Amino acid sequence: MQGKVLIVTGALGALGKVVAETALARGARVAGIDHAPSQMSATPERIEIGGVDLSDPAQAKTAVEAAAKHFGRLDALINIAGGFAFETVGDGDIKTWQRMHALNVLTALNTSHAALPHLAASGAGRIVNIGAMGALQAGSGMGPYAASKAGVHRLTEALANEWKGKVTVNAVLPSIIDTKANRADMPKADFSKWVTPQELAEVILFLVSDAASGVTGALIPVSGRV
């Protein structure tokens, strides 16, 4: 990680914070982009760009260019920004499907589109997306979320083929991430079997590293303890 410049979207969320802090601890420089307001001033090692709607391509491009200008280059993009909804098709609202597509697919698409020229210039450019094991086979109520995350999987594969030899593009597919929000939503679950943010961060940062130069187009399940 030493000296690498990373963009982390959703950087103020439960997973984004852990990924950003772990990367910084290993010598990376990090630009955090989030819909929430920025919480800190810029330093040579870190910049937070808040108040950004990454489902808007113009806002995504502006944020990526600000990060590239601050650090002088970009080496990796980690697309964590996203959302979740549980809603059956029959009882649900079409707007939920549109919202999941915007939060999960368009955020990754727009940020990747803006970052790709910079990543290609890096010589070791990386994109890591967040898919979902739940998108491999959708259960009842998982339709809107699973469909959007399946879109992230296909986006990952398409970009990996289109930019092969220039930028590696992979996705991690977590099961249930052990966060405060998920524990509150599923209080009777066995939390010990969930994947922790730190476990997921380790896989993500491996895919960003030089050691993963030969890995592209991979959809990697991260299921925690079973």
Explain this structure:
Helix content is 42%, strand content 16%. The protein is α/β, with parallel strands linked by helices and 226 residues long. It is globular. It has a seven-stranded parallel sheet, with helices on both faces. The model has no long low-confidence stretch (mean pLDDT 96). It contains six helices and seven strands. 43% of the residues are buried.
Key phrases:
226 residues; Sc_DH/Rdtase_CS; 6 helices; globular; alpha/beta
Short description:
Helices cover 42% and strands 16% of the residues. By secondary structure, the chain is of the alpha/beta class. Belongs to the short-chain dehydrogenases/reductases (SDR) family.
Tell me, what's the shape? globular
Low-confidence stretches: none
Beta-strand percent range: 15-25%
* SSE run: EHEEHEHEHEHHE
Radius of gyration over all CA atoms, rounded: 17 Å
Helical coverage, percent range: 40-55%
End-to-end CA span? 30 Å
Number of strands: 7
Strand order of the largest sheet: 3-2-1-4-5-6-7
- Classify the secondary structure makeup into a structural class: alpha/beta
Mean pLDDT: 96
The largest sheet, given as strand count, sense and whether it forms a barrel, is: 7 strands, parallel
Number of helices: 6
